[in-house]
Amino acid sequence: MSHSLEVESWNRRRSGFYNRNNGLLRMKTFYIETFGCQMNVHDSEKVMGTLLRRGYRQVDSPESADLVLYNTCSIRDKAEQKVFNRLQQFKKTGNGKVFGVLGCVAQQEGERIFERAPHVGMVVGSASYHKLPDLLGQLETGNRRVTGLELDTDETFETPFARRDNPHRAYITIIEGCDKSCAYCVVPFTRGPERSRGSGGILREARDLAETGYTEIQLLGQNVNSYRDPSPAGWDFATLLRNVACVPGMRRVRFTTSHPRDFVKEIIDAIEDVPALCNHVHLPVQSGSSRMLGRMQRLYTRDEYMRRIEWMKRASRDIAITTDIIVGFPGETEEDFEQTLQLLDEIEYDSLFSFKYSPRPNTPALRLEGQIAEEEKGRRLTILQEKQRAIQIRRNAGYVGTVEEVHIEGYNKALQQWIGRTSQNKTLNFYDAPNDGSKEDLLGRYLPVRVTRAGPNSLVGERVQ
Ligand code: SAH
Ligand code: SF4
Ligand code: F3S
Question: Quick one: pLDDT band at residue 437, thresholds 50, 70, 90?
Fold first, then answer.
């Protein structure tokens, strides 16, 4: 299409996005709230980009929006309930607004959402976001209910105009969906089968981000390790990592999430070789008991997991290791739980996310014997978290006296501290000593900081002059 034609059709399309209200031409507005993981956060950025491009304006309260969107998470029951609580609030006052439910609850519940919340006008799962422009078009022309719920798709949602929220770290999706079938997990049902993006498009996005000033990016997928480049280059994940980290201007490259089964030594080799790859691997273990790992259908044993941990511990770089753990999975005995506690002592994770098992619709674990009472899950969670807190206090204390490079992400006025993050993804806040009042703007810069104090969740230090 020639440029003038493009502009003309853009204007023509845009004129449809204004509606008459009190005799004035008014632009359509939208509000979006996001729940769940980083993949959802980044999906929302792409959805915002799509809406802004269509001439919508973003507002920061649902009350003042024509279109109210919730990008939802269904990983645990509590997360799922959040969206229904939100929708309930607007049952009476939502007249005239269009409500849209996006993301994992949308995919899971589908048209049942219209029954539970009749004021909802749009239900779209993440595997159908490439259809958003079409679905928005249908809403704009007066369609009351639109859905995008196909799961079995080859499509990925790529938009060159994502509206990125975080000025310091940009997300790039490299793979969507998940082909594993962990017994407790809804993601394969809510995000569909794995689809990898071509390496060319990923590299182009990384270069564009570097040109707009981003120095830190995070590659995203439910299981980044199973990345397979569909283009003729045919890169695996480790090769992609090396290439992205060599984009001029990139100082830090992170990735999440890694599945242990597909985590190969080449990833650690890449981290060893390429300075821009961060000293951090998030490797969810879920349980320290091989028996439980089998019941969870995780496809690895404790020993196989430990082999991967050994690669990291033996590396010359000080690689931070973090994980996810589920307590109270059906059939978990005191002995199984004890093995998870021992694993924490053995590995000494830098931090972890821990959850009580939450039964989810459609998942095989629903049918397992040995469901565990909520109070017992709570008891195990508390014990686990207390143990990990002690480990973090000990580990972080080991950093006192060292000098770490931080990427500066903010300033805490009350504490008069800059907020920084180390390559290991630890928060290291620091005083810009000596503080002579002539404050420089340090946001976005990388500086060496000497650690002077350590707590369980963060470090404090002083700028090295
Ligand atoms: N793809 C990632 C995890 C995505 S979900 C991976 O395989 O590691 C993030 C975490 O939520 C999981 O690692 C798991 O610890 C937790 N989780 C998933 N389903 C859960 C459930 N039904 N109950 C409790 N925690 C759950
Ligand atoms: Fe869920 Fe397992 Fe896939 Fe992770 S790998 S998203 S836990 S099914
Ligand atoms: Fe939640 Fe869906 Fe992410 S269930 S954790 S938003 S993939």
Answer: low
Assign domain 3-148 to a CATH class: alpha beta
Q: Give the Å distance between the CA of 362 and the centre of ligand 2.
A: 14
Give residue-wise pLDDT tens across range 93-148.
Answer: 656 789 999 999 999 999 999 999 999 999 999 999 999 999 999 998 888 899 99
Q: How far is CA 84 from CA 14, 34, 70, 115, 176, in A?
A: 33, 13, 10, 12, 26
Q: Are 256 and 282 in contact (CB under 8 A)?
A: yes
Just give the CATH number of 403-463: 2.40.50.140
Residue 358 CA, ligand 1 centroid: distance in Å = 10
Q: Is the pTM of this model over 0.90?
A: yes
431 lines ligand 1 (CB under 6 A): no
Strands (E), 133-249: 146-148, 169-173, 175-176, 195-196, 216-220
- Euclidean distance between CA atoms 172 and 169, whole angstroms: 10
Provide CATH 3.40.50.12160 ranges for the chain.
Answer: 3-148
Q: Which residue carries 């939802």 as its tokens?
A: 72
Provide the residue count of the chain. Answer: 465
The tokens for 126 are: 């993440």
Judge whether 384 and 341 are in contact, CB under 8 Å: yes
Smallest CA-to-CA distance from 186 within 69, 83, 36 is with 36
Running DSSP on this structure, what letter comes out for residue 224?
A: G
Q: Whose CA is nearest to atom 5 of ligand 2?
A: 180
Rounded Cα distance between 65 and 68, Å, is 6
* Tens-place pLDDT, residues 225-259: 999 999 999 999 999 999 999 999 999 999 999 99
The residue to which tokens 């422009």 are assigned: 133
Asked whether 191 lines ligand 3 (CB < 6 A), one says yes
Ligand 2 atom 1 nearest Cα: 185
Mean pLDDT of the chain: 91
Cα(178) to ligand 2 centroid in Å equals: 6
- Whether 170 lines ligand 3, by a CB cut-off of 6 Å, is no
Determine if ligand 1 sits within 6 Å of the CB of residue 326.
yes
Residue 36 is encoded by which pair of tokens?
């769940």
Residue type, 365: A
Fold of 169-397: pyruvate-formate lyase- activating enzyme (3.80.30)
Model confidence pLDDT, tens digit, residues 389-418: 999 999 999 999 999 999 999 999 898 899
Q: How far is the CA of 286 from the centre of ligand 1 (A)?
A: 8
